[in-house]
Amino acid sequence: MTVPVLVTGGDGVLGRPIVAALRAAGREVASASRASREHPLDIRREAEVRALVERLRPGVVVHLAALLPGASDDLDEVNVEGTRRVADAAASVGARLVFASSAAVYASVRESPAREDEAVAPTTPYGRSKVRAEEVLDAFGDAVTALSLRIFNVSGPELPGSLPQRLVRSTEAEPVRLRGLDDFVRDYVTPADVARAVVAAVDAAVAPGHTRVNVGSGAATSNRALVDLVARIARVHVVDETGPRDRVWADTARARAVLGVVPTPIQDWSADAFLG
């Protein structure tokens, strides 16, 4: 018998491929969101969270619902307290929690890949909200088995605001302004990469308590390298506005050991990953 999986934020850009991948893997999935007709859910409302989890009694809760980078308010209420509400409800029914955290928790000026056991140093309100959400999960101790997936820079045709997509759509009249060519480095992943990691996390052999795992390819891709990659499939128009060093990419050792899957480096993406 399959173990039901509840996905919060299941109607989002990451939620849709994650729900599809879980179902393709043979899982029974309930997708919940504020827009859902079947399973409406506002994680600001504790009673609503508790009632849904108690009704469905999932074996696993995949918690994606959150405010995204750039949100001006409610980050603590949604990203931190919302995670506490979901984790508390999951613990009450003995469900595993798979939480969508972010590479934004890491310091962004570095000379080596980011490791899960290093001290965090977020530089944005969004990153700080994800750190506090992870600390919420730490506080549960062994009362919940939780995996925080620290997702790196997601890109694809579904995400027009991502830098690779902006480069694909750039024009001479509207070039992309880059924060330097060699000192801005990121680690790019696709929604399908994230979905594979979530599917693996649902069954990963981990001890009770909180485990943090990077979801990144390990490829440190500079803006210069990214422009060269995109230029193979589209005309690219950029303006180089040199900025401070800003470099973050993933150490993948724990992902290989815990999940058994690592995203494909952007250098090996197909044209469809850029163009759709």
UniProtKB/TrEMBL annotation:
InterPro entries assigned: Epimerase_deHydtase (IPR001509), Lipid_A_modif_metabolic_enz (IPR050177), NAD(P)-bd_dom_sf (IPR036291)
SUPFAM superfamilies: NAD(P)-binding Rossmann-fold domains
Superkingdom, natural source: Bacteria
Domain NAD-dependent epimerase/dehydratase positions: 5-216
Gene3D superfamilies reported for this sequence: NAD(P)-binding Rossmann-like Domain
PANTHER family: BIFUNCTIONAL POLYMYXIN RESISTANCE PROTEIN ARNA, UDP-D-APIOSE_UDP-D-XYLOSE SYNTHASE 2
Name of the protein this chain belongs to: NAD(P)-dependent oxidoreductase
